[in-house]
């Protein structure tokens, strides 16, 4: 078998890349380790930047998002019983779209099915080979049979634990990492959101976030120590903690109910440099991770795909390698700014008892400055709605 571009991973990065390449007439095959149902069962991000919304439009998969997604003009930061509203629309002229990663992935999967695209699910032992030559190839196993696919390029869209980054020889890659001593315990429940906008809270007990997926489906998170067992937190205990951390106004309005999903995500900042090794490219979580506080993980995956898809389309259409040659540098410039913002939002809004009293005062000063300065709020808003591609 042969294809022009072999894509490893059918998460949002891989499927968006495949969709954009297909629209431009570039041939590709996606190789995914899991089943479609498994991929859709992972509850993750919920906030889309305008740039990502534009890419979903370009990919022809935005119709349901525009119908069912919730445009948000602002969000709140709550400290104790004080709330500061960040007026995204007023400060930047832009807004964000609340629409779950699961829905984005489902829309992309449906578009792939509709056009009969090649996505090989439950492909085992996918291995990128010979990407340091002009003849890269992929091998994988399916139903006990080994297959080989020759290609021009391999795109590693297989997430943080994927095989693509791991296939790069030691010494060719530099990794930058910061691990936080806590995670986010997330809960999904069919209850009305506590407010029409998101609330990010810093409380002495730890961070909390009130988010949503629709007017009847809420998503909440609380900071928990690293290594916490999710089974130690009953639904009732989580609701009680959310009421404490989100403040009295939210507590009075909060609807509670049984969880339909409950999981813990560790927090990490990570960047691999560069993002290209011969004919292998890394995109999305395969190349970088941000802590979720700034809602940047999914959006960064989309901006990588913007640079990578346009480079590959230019390569096949105009016979120019300029776009793919610049991919790593262009993508990393934007990635590091999102890393900075996500680290800063995380530092502002979480409890770090191990960092002591000085750090706590710095956090307080940062918050006071934000509350008193429109310039500081505009800087936050500009980053939150997404820096230009
Ligand atoms: P992924 O979504 O990880 O997709 C990679 C795909 O590759 C997967 O389908 C995987 O099965 C497949 N794969 C892996 N290994 C192989 C292999 N060897 N062979 C073939 N296929 C393989 N971001 C936010 O902004 N807000 C959040 O609240 C948030 N919560 C998160 C919670 C968790 C638990 C995680 C892990 C991430 C979260 N993120 C969040 C980040 C966001 O979801 C990611 O940035 C986004 O999923 C990146 O998309 P991706 O396609 O690059 O990677
Ligand atoms: C959600 C996740 C985030 O990381 C965030 O900053 C905002 C919302 C969510 O899952 O809804």
UniProtKB/TrEMBL annotation:
SUPFAM superfamilies in alphabetical order: FAD-linked reductases, C-terminal domain (SSF54373), FAD/NAD(P)-binding domain (SSF51905)
Gene3D superfamilies for this protein: D-Amino Acid Oxidase, subunit A, domain 2 (3.30.9.10), FAD/NAD(P)-binding domain (3.50.50.60)
Keywords recorded for this protein, A-Z: FAD, Flavoprotein, Oxidoreductase
MF (Gene Ontology): 4-hydroxybenzoate 3-monooxygenase activity
This enzyme's EC code(s): 1.14.13.2
One Pfam family hit: FAD_binding_3
Protein's UniProt keywords contain Flavoprotein: yes
Domain FAD-binding: 2-342
Protein name: 4-hydroxybenzoate 3-monooxygenase
Originating organism: Roseibium aestuarii
Source organism phylogeny: Bacteria, Pseudomonadati, Pseudomonadota, Alphaproteobacteria, Hyphomicrobiales
């Amino acid at each position: 078998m042969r294809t022009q571009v072999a894509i490893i991973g059918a998460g949002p990065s891989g499927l968006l890349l495949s969709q954009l390449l297909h629209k431009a007439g570039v041939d590709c095959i996606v190789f995914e380790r899991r089943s479609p149902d498994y991929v859709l069962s992972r509850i993750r991000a919920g906030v889309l930047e305008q740039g990502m919304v534009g890419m979903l439009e370009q990919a022809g998969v935005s119709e349901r998002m525009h119908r069912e997604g919730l445009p948000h003009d602002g969000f709140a930061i709550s400290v104790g019983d004080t709330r500061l509203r960040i007026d995204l629309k007023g400060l930047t002229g832009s807004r964000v779209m609340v629409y779950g990663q699961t829905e984005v992935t489902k829309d992309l999967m449906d578009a792939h099915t509709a056009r009969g695209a090649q996505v090989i699910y439950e492909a085992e032992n996918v291995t990128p080979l010979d990407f340091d030559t002009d003849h890269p190839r992929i091998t994988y196993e399916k139903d006990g049979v080994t297959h080989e696919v020759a290609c021009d390029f391999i795109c590693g869209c297989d997430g943080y634990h994927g095989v693509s980054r791991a296939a790069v020889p030691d010494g060719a890659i530099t990794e930058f990492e910061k691990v936080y001593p806590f995670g986010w315990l997330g809960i999904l429940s069919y209850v009305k959101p506590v407010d029409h906008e998101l609330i990010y809270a810093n409380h002495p007990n730890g961070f909390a976030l009130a988010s949503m997926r629709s007017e009847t489906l809420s998503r909440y998170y609380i900071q928990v120590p690293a290594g916490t067992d999710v089974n130690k937190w009953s639904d009732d205990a989580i609701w009680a903690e959310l009421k404490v951390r989100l403040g009295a106004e939210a507590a009075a309005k909060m609807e509670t109910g049984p969880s339909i999903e409950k999981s813990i995500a560790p927090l990490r900042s990570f960047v691999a440099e560069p993002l290209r090794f011969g004919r292998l490219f890394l995109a999305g979580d395969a190349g970088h991770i941000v802590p979720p506080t700034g809602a940047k993980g999914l959006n960064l995956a989309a901006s990588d795909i913007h640079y990578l898809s346009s480079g590959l389309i230019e390569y096949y259409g105009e016979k120019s390698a300029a776009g793919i040659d610049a991919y790593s540098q262009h993508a990393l410039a934007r990635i590091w700014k999102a890393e900075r913002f996500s680290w800063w939002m995380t530092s502002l809004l979480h409890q770090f008892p191990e960092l002591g009293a000085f750090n706590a005062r710095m956090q307080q000063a940062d918050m006071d400055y934000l509350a008193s300065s429109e310039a500081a709020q505009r800087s936050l808003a500009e980053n939150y709605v997404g820096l230009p591609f």
